[in-house]
Structure formats: structure tokens, C-alpha cells
Amino acid sequence: MKIIKRSGSEDVFDSAKIVAAVQKANESVIDYEKLDNNQIQEIADNVEVACENMKRSPSVEEIQDMVENQLMNHRAFNVARNYITYRYKRALVFASAEF
Known about the structure:
It is built from 4 helices and 2 strands. It has helices at 15-27, 37-53, 60-73, 77-98; strands at residues 2-4, 10-12.
């Protein structure tokens, strides 16, 4: 399966990138709010299945929206907040690299 990057180029879908991003957001919350590794993997798996069901290449932004929704479904609101902040910063880095 392919994805459409911010630059418009295609790349191979890699659920490990979802796991890594959620783990980074997860590390920044207090212990009792943290997701366990099984929950994080479940989020990545659910997003992968949703992308496969789209029957087209999803964009990075669409995948990130799915991750946010999965985090909310797990009631991991602070993890979601940190993930959204990380996502915003990454978008800024990409935007500034275009100039």
C-alpha cells in the first residue's frame, strides 16, 4: 500500500511510523494516562486496515486524522493533544522547508 506524502510524492505505508509517533506522544504524559504497547499497536493496526479499505492512497494528513480519532476512541486525550502538537510542528517544519 502507498501513501501520499506532504510533498505530493508517494511512499510505502509503514505502520511502524505510526507506532513511533504515538509512542513519542505517549512518553510525554504522566504514567496513569499512558497507553500500553498493545493499545498503541492496536491503533496502528486499525489505521492500517482503514487505509486498506479506502481503495486508494491516503494522504499523510488523512492518516494522522485517523490516528487522532483512534487516540480519542481510547480516551487518551492528553496523548492525543501531544500527538496533535507534534503533528502541527512537523507540518511547520515541512512548510518552512518549501521556501
